[in-house]
Write a structure and sequence with these properties.
single chain; mainly alpha; 65% helix; elongated
């Protein structure tokens, strides 16, 4: 069996604190390492178009919901795990760049909406495609069946951890 760098770390822990070694440690370390590789790809692609990863996340979330490409700032913040202060800073910069606009709700003045501008739709689509291509390049050496199996297993793992999607139509 081929070994990865996590195996080396686990071997060291097995000598130092053997009671800490188990599937949970190995899984956590491998997911953390994989997340780091994916973050590198996202950072490189977003930087190439002058965006931060947080700005990319906002643009892609708005584009993903479809026409009219609008969400409330609180929904963006909770969906992207940002604080209200963090989302405000990101939105301010995106608005200055002309890729989003903020608009009061006509039915409730207390509610504001964040909406992609036409320029924002173009930028969002361009960067989502660039990131997706970069992720595909990262995983290109991995056999397709292994990718499919890993997707299925990670989905099952997340569901077991309570990260289940809302029922369809809810």
């Amino acid at each position: 069996m081929r070994r990865d760098r996590v195996d080396e770390v686990v071997d060291e822990w097995r000598v130092q604190l053997p009671d800490t070694v188990g599937p949970a440690m190995e899984l956590g370390k491998r997911i953390h390492r994989l997340a780091g590789r994916l973050q590198e790809v996202v950072r490189a692609e977003t930087a190439a178009v002058g965006l931060t990863p947080a700005e990319f996340d906002v643009l892609s979330a708005l584009r993903r919901v479809g026409v009219p490409y609008a969400l409330k700032p609180s929904d963006l913040a909770s969906g992207l795990l940002l604080t209200s202060g963090g989302i405000s800073n990101v939105l301010r910069r995106l608005q200055q760049d002309g890729v989003i606009e903020r608009e009061a709700d006509s039915a409730d003045a207390r509610v504001a909406w964040v909406r992609l501008t036409p320029k924002g739709v173009t930028v969002a689509e361009r960067v989502v495609r660039a990131v997706t291509r970069a992720q595909a390049r990262l995983f290109a050496p991995v056999p397709e069946q292994l990718q499919h199996d890993t997707v299925r297993h990670l989905r099952e793992l997340l569901v077991e951890l309570g990260d289940e999607a809302a029922p369809e139509g809810a």
